[in-house]
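REQUEST FORM: STRUCTURE PREDICTION
Request ID: SP-0412
Submitted by: Lab K.M.
Chain count: 1
Length (residues): 331
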Amino acid sequence: MRSIFLGNRDTVGQVYRGPEIDALESEFGLRNTVYTKDDLNARDFRDVDFIFSTWGMPSLSTKEISGCFPALKAVFYAAGTVQAFARPFLECGVRVFSAWAANAVPVSEYAVAQIILANKGFFRAFGLKSPGEHRERAGISHEYPGNYGCKVGILGAGMIGKLVIRKLKNDYHLQVLVFDPFLPEEKAKELGAVKTDLHTVFRECTTISNHLANNEQTKGMLNKSCFSLMKDHATFINTGRGAQVVNADLEEALRARPFAAAVLDVTYPEPLPEGHPFYRMENVILTPHMAGSQACETERMARYMVEECRLLHAGRPVRYEVTADMLKTMA
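STATUS: Completed
RESULT:
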């Protein structure tokens, strides 16, 4: 059995380390060398069974895959979305596994933290520069509902959305409205959420958190028809994908509602170009795509993929395989 690392040397080194490296070397014949796409024509990979990767996994054509990796059985991706590279591998009969469940954990934690702060009016009350501002902003806190019985909207009930809903329901007395066309009514009830349409979420919820899958159908879905319905003190949080938001429509809504706010961990393009209005708007909080796994959190993703490889090799049921059908709806 032979396994290799394929991708970006820096990110592979950040994600795969410690006991995961030892396990891969001893159990799956992997040497701690990271190959890049440029190495494919210079070396012989015809006997490789497994590829391990993470952020920076190259996109290969079916011709490149079949030519360079004729014996390849599986790709283990210690990160979230596989949309950028998975289809050609699947078309070649190579199984693809993703640590989306591991990466979902810190994203859900981050989103819940922002939701709880938003319901208190934090994003319109922080950054005081003078006693006058303190008095002025102290007054606006009465306009926000806090976290008892407040309506929160969740867009998308994939792995991350479900974790967010569970945390909100288990740890806080919040009402949760969810928009997800693919979520069965019974599953929504099981989660303790009310399934509804997109516009109702924006119309009724104080805080809206986006976790929609990233695909052609969702691009530009969050536009004027949604943002124009926001409450005057609403907060829109995006830890999903920036391409789902029409920036000009969000900007217009926030200018019309100075006590509303947007917390954007992702944008499109990313980063936004120099001089973009969001950099100057007081009610827009931009963070640099930091909700996902970072530092020690990335080790969880590597561990998930090592464990998944063990299950596959032992002929036992796997947990995090990605299929072609799943790519139609997952992030």
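NOTES: The radius of gyration is 22 Å.
Reviewed by: T.R.
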